[in-house]
Design goal:
Order of helices and strands: HEHEEHHE
Structural class: alpha+beta
Protein name: NIPSNAP domain-containing protein
CATH class: Alpha Beta
Distance between the termini: 46 Å
Helix content: 40-55%
Strand content: 25-35%
Number of domains: 1
CATH architecture: 2-Layer Sandwich
CATH topology: Alpha-Beta Plaits
Radius of gyration: 26 Å
Number of strands: 4
Keywords: Signal
Length: about 150
């Protein structure tokens, strides 16, 4: 009887050992990181300088304002060195760590409009003017993943 009891205990210990190692294998490998909003931009022929000036002036200023408010963590302009047909020339990247609530979005919009000192109709007009120098190809929202080491 003692041998049977020891055998049962042995089987139970083996099962617990194997099940706990399989549970450990099911742990998440990654932890979530920052969000990366990536806008793909194709620049019209002969418009590089015009668009670069817009990015260096208005766009950059707007990004710096958002960064000063801690709405975003970072922003980048990335150039596609060997762009193939149909690929973007530039990627505009905005990095942030959390989504704004609806209330925060409203508040941010109000603050940004006060800071920009322009009307919504004027901003729409300027955006339409930029359509002559560049084409927004796509927007992607990516999330960085970090290994859990």
């Amino acid at each position: 009887m003692k041998k049977v009891t020891n055998l049962i205990y042995g089987v139970i210990i083996c099962l617990l050992t194997f099940s706990s190692s399989s549970l450990m294998a099911d742990e998440r490998v990654f932890k979530n990181g920052d969000y990366w909003e990536v806008t793909s931009v194709e620049i019209e022929d002969g418009q590089w300088l015009t668009y670069a000036k817009h990015l260096a002036d208005e766009w950059r200023s707007s990004m710096e304002f958002a960064k000063s408010k801690k709405w975003i963590k970072e922003y980048k302009v990335v150039y596609n060195v060997h762009a193939r047909d149909g690929e973007a020339d530039l990627y505009l990247i905005t990095i942030f760590d959390k989504w704004a609530s609806l209330e925060e979005e409203e508040s941010r919009f109000t603050e940004w409009m006060e800071w920009s000192k322009e009307s919504l109709s004027k901003l729409e007009e300027e955006s339409g003017d930029r359509a002559k120098i560049r084409r927004l190809m796509s927007d992607s929202l990516l999330q960085e993943l970090h290994f859990r080491d």
